C-alpha cells in the first residue's frame, strides 16, 4: 500500500510537470530536460508485489540412508559402495567405467528428439521475451502518402459566406453557383511518427519480468528433460546388460542340460537308470530352452529402446550393443554432495521458482491495469501541394503531445483478472513447496533403495553359494544311490533361480545409483548448452570390460549340471563334467 501511494503521488506530480512542460515546449523548452525527467520518474515505481526468492526447507544432513551405510547388524558386513558428502561429478555416468554407456550419454544430449524439440521451445520463449522487451522502448514508423483531391463547391461557398457576414468589407467574394469551379490539386505528405507508453506504474516492466521468468521456466524444463533422458539411457543400458547375462546363464544351462540328457540316455542304455530319469532330463532341457525366446525378444526391445533415445531407426545399435558385456559396476564411493546444494541442482525446483516469479510479476501487471495509461505521441514530416516543395523547411509539419486512457468502467474484468493472478500466485507458491518436498522424498527413497539393494545382493550371493553346495551334495549322493534324481533336479532349479535373482540384483544396484543421481539433479552441467558436433564426425568406442565392481556377481553356475556316474564295466561313462564356474579341490565331482 505504501509503495502504491508513493507511485500515485509521483505520477500526479509528473502529470503536473507534463502540463507545464507542454506550455514550455511551445516556448522552446529543452527536450533533454524532459527525457531526463521521464527517466527519473519512471525508473523506480512499479505497483504490485515484488518477487523475493524463496528459501527452501533444507535438513542439516541427509536422513536415514546415510546412517544405514555405517550402522550394520551383528554379523552383517557393511555395504561395498557407500555415499560421501563430496560434490557429485556432473558426468556421473563415467563412474561406471563403461565407454559405451559414456558415449551413449553424450549422444543423447545432442541426438535425442525430445531434447532437440526443447531447443526450439527455448527459441520460442526467447522470441516472446524479445517481444515483451520491445514494449519498453518507443515505437517508430515512417509513412508517406499522395492524394489528388477536389473540395466541394458548396463547402467553399459556405465558408466564404460566413466570412462575408463577419466582415462586410469583403462582400462579393463568394462566387455564384454557376460560376463556382474548384480546381483539382495534389497533396503530398511524408512523416516519421513515434509513440511511447510512459511506464508510470510499472505495467510494461512487470510484463517483461513475467516474460523473462517464463523463459527461465522453459530453460529449466529443457534441463529436466535432458536429465530424464540421460537416466533413461542408463537404466535401459543396465537392463540390456542384465538380459545378456540372463541369456548367457540360460545358454550355458542349455548346453549342460543337453549333456545331462546324453548322460542319462547312456546310463539307461547300460541299465543303470530308468527311462523316467531320461524323460525328466529331457523335460529339464526343454524348460531351459523355452526361456531363450523370451529373453531374446526382451533384448531386441531394449536395443530398440536405446535406438529410439538416440533418434535412430530400429536395430540401428544392434551391432554395437549385442556384443555381450558385463553389467556396469558401481564405484566404491558415491559422492552425493550436501543438502544445501540440492535446490540449486534440481531443475524442477528452479522451474517451480521461476513459475512463482512469473506469477508474482503478473499480479503486478494486473494491478497496473487499474491506473491511467499515459502515452507520448510525436510526429515530424513534410506536407505540400507540389512534390517539388517536399523537403523544404517551410513545408515541415510536426505534432507532439500526451494521451491518457483511464479505465472508468470495465464490467468487473479488471478485478476478475487481478483475483485470477493472485490465485495463480498462491498456487505457484504451493507448487514450489510441493516440488521441494518431492525432491527430498526422491533423494531419501533413492538412498534407501541403493543401500538396501546392496544388502539384498549380499544375501543372494550367499544363497547362490549355498545352493551350489547343495547341488554338489545332491550329485554325490545320487552317484552313491542315496537319493533319487528328483533331489538333483530340485537343487538345479534352486540354483538357476538364485542365479537369476542375483543377476537382477546386480543390475538393480547400478540402476538404483542412476536413480540416485537423477534425484540429485546432476548431469546437465556437462551437456548444457548443447555442444556443436563437427560435420561428419563419428565416435567409435571400443568394447571393453568394466573395472572390478565392489558389488560383484560371484561366478555363475548353470543350474542344470551333469550327474556323476559311478564306474561301470563295459564302457559305460564313469564320470561327468564338473560344475562350470564352481570351485574344485583338485578333483572331479563324483
Could you explain the architecture of this structure?
This protein has 14 helices and six strands. α7 (203-269) packs antiparallel against α8, α7 (203-269) packs antiparallel against α9 (291-309) and α13 packs antiparallel against α14. The longest helix has 67 residues, at 203-269. The protein has two domains: 1-45; 47-54 and 92-132 and 200-373 and 416-579, Outer membrane efflux proteins (OEP), CATH 1.20.1600.10. The strands form two sheets. It has a four-stranded antiparallel sheet with strand order 2-3-5-6, with no helix packed on it. It is elongated and about 150 Å long. With 590 residues, the protein is of the alpha+beta class. It has helices spanning 2-26, 31-43, 65-70, 99-111, 113-134, 153-166, 203-269, 275-289, 291-309, 318-321, 342-345, 347-368, 413-479, 485-520, and strands at residues 82-84, 139-149, 185-198, 333-335, 373-384, 396-405.
Structural key phrases:
590 residues, Outer membrane efflux proteins (OEP), 14 helices, 9% strand, alpha+beta, four-stranded antiparallel beta sheet, two-stranded parallel ribbon, elongated, lipoprotein
